[in-house]
Amino acid sequence: MNTLFLSTLITGLLLTQAACGQTQTAATAASSCANKPDDISAYAKHNLKQYQGKVLRISDGDTLQVRDQNGQKQRVRLAYIDAPETEQAGGRDSQRQLQRLLDNQTVTVQVVDIDNYKRQVAIVWQQGRDINATQIATGMAWQYASIAKRQQTSQGYQYYHCLEASARNSKQGLWRNSKAQAPWEYRQQRRQAQ
């Protein structure tokens, strides 16, 4: 099972890489991060529920809208990652990548929390591929370490951390910009300016 899952993840990352025109494969990052959790329940300390749905809309690089099996629209925030804001450098690229990966696709939503905005915080899976990890591995998002340390399993945390380090080292996506600003810093600056 683990080999099949890793193979599916690597294949998905290779396709993503090709679609984004990036030179080094994100599969290298995934394969070099040997501490990948064995199953989806090992990614989060709390698994509230899981369901399948169809992606309706991508708001930005870490937020989307899904129609669940009951026909209800759900706002979903990708857990443990933080993508650049759309008006921030790299924000539109991150949003476009998530659009390419998930537009009109059926996904599995693994809800791990509900945030202050009443969004479901979740790991989103598409054909066995962890989309949250894909955003990190291709340099389209940061690991949201301050939250992940508290809410992610240590194995899941280390895996995401390794993916980010590999993306940084190979200058994937936003890491091509040596002055890439973390989204939480960007949001804090905007609040202080108001």
From TrEMBL:
<protein>
    <submittedName>
        <fullName>Thermonuclease family protein</fullName>
    </submittedName>
</protein>
<feature type="signal peptide">
    <location>
        <begin position="1"/>
        <end position="21"/>
    </location>
</feature>
<feature type="domain" description="TNase-like">
    <location>
        <begin position="49"/>
        <end position="177"/>
    </location>
</feature>
<dbReference type="InterPro" id="IPR002071">
    <property type="entry name" value="Thermonucl_AS"/>
</dbReference>
<keyword id="KW-0732">Signal</keyword>
<dbReference type="InterPro" id="IPR035437">
    <property type="entry name" value="SNase_OB-fold_sf"/>
</dbReference>
<dbReference type="InterPro" id="IPR016071">
    <property type="entry name" value="Staphylococal_nuclease_OB-fold"/>
</dbReference>
<dbReference type="Pfam" id="PF00565">
    <property type="entry name" value="SNase"/>
</dbReference>
